[in-house]
Amino acid sequence: MSKKFLTLILTTLSLLILPGCSSNKALMKKYGDITPVTSRENSKVDGWQNYYFSKTDCNCVYGDEFYIALKETPSQSNNLMISLQGGGACWPGMIHCKPNTSEEDVLISDFTTQLDDRLTEDWNQVVIPYCDGSVFMGDTKQDYNDDDNTDHWHNGLKNSVAALKLTHKKFPNTSKIFLTGCSAGGYGTILHLRLLRELYPKAAIYVLNESGPGLLKPDNEFWEMVDASWNLSQLMPKNCDPCAGQLIYWYDDMLKDPGIKIGLYSSYMDQVIGRDFLKMTPENYKSLLVKTTDDLNAKYPDQFKRFLIKGKSHCVRNRDYQVNGIKYWDWVMAFINEKENWKDILE
């Protein structure tokens, strides 16, 4: 029996036992009727089509227009790559997030375009720009300057559902999905993975999270503040105590599905996530990163693997970087091609 056929069987069986499906259905139903109002070719990158949503349905953190971009391969393909853009976060005392979208956002597809060129099969592509300030998950309106007027719209959940529903409409027969994002985009893969499984129950899904590991400052007051700002508790998996406070553990619920694999890249002391946003010391951030990812790797050694490097860099600066003689590019290729040399790499 081939490995791919065995994976398909296991994935199908897992649908009978995978928890959280009903809650995922509810999320899709909540905003599932939103559709784009117009489309046009992207003026910055050839071959991409932008789909724009009404600002009364979907908008950015300050009320600006939201869109997603799609690129359909000329050949018939059941493969799909989705790129989630990064760009900070906003909560009380931390107003540092990408406020709007632009046509240049599609340039983040450079990585998946290079990856597509290295793979033997063709892939359809989607770019979901980031502009909600809540790592693609928020579902609130906020008045952060206390003047009794809404000044921040955290529409991450709404924008995400609308984007993926359109993606499913355009590419309904997808059987293999590669979902990736850096920084806030990496955090965004946590929710998008759940929504994608709801839309594509039989597809093999590969998640590459680059420097967005789903970590929060391990402090109850911090969690309560972020939850109050974004309304994350409505999304939290059931029967998961550590999920309140550490979003990385939300992956656990999905890794029970053998059709899902997750690769995580990070530096040990990422200064953007650890120092700038979470206000943690480098040593404490490293300890939290290693502890939480150790937990998932120990529980799902064949499905969750890491490429952790020394230093404090954020996102991937050099995909030819080597650890123990293995280039990051080669690690990614082994991951998506399900090769035996996809290993857990700790520098």
How does this model look, in words?
This protein has 10 helices and 16 strands. By secondary structure, the chain is an alpha/beta fold. The chain has a single domain (3-339), classed as Alpha/Beta hydrolase fold, catalytic domain (Rossmann fold, 3-Layer(aba) Sandwich). The strands form 4 sheets. The protein has a 10-stranded mixed β-sheet with strand order 1-2-3-7-4-10-11-12-13-16, sandwiched between helices. Strands 5-6 form a two-stranded antiparallel ribbon. The longest helix is centred in the C-terminal third of the chain and has 18 residues, at 282-299. It is globular, with a radius of gyration of 19 Å. Keywords: Signal. Residues 1-25 form the signal peptide. This is Pectinacetylesterase.
What structural keywords apply?
347 residues, Rossmann fold, 10-stranded mixed sheet, 10 helices, globular
Brief write-up:
The protein has helices at residues 3-14, 21-31, 110-118, 156-170, 184-199, 220-230, 250-255, 271-277, 282-299, 328-336; strands at 38-41, 49-52, 67-71, 79-84, 88-91, 94-97, 124-128, 140-142, 152-154, 176-182, 204-210, 260-267, 304-309, 322-323, 326-327, 345-346. By secondary structure, the chain is α/β, with parallel strands linked by helices.
Secondary structure: elements and pairs:
Elements: H1 3-14, H2 21-31, E1 38-41, E2 49-52, E3 67-71, E4 79-84, E5 88-91, E6 94-97, H3 110-118, E7 124-128, E8 140-142, E9 152-154, H4 156-170, E10 176-182, H5 184-199, E11 204-210, H6 220-230, H7 250-255, E12 260-267, H8 271-277, H9 282-299, E13 304-309, E14 322-323, E15 326-327, H10 328-336, E16 345-346
Parallel strand pairs: 4-7, 4-10, 10-11, 11-12, 12-13, 13-16
Antiparallel strand pairs: 1-2, 2-3, 3-7, 5-6, 8-9, 14-15
Helix pairs in contact: 2-4, 4-5
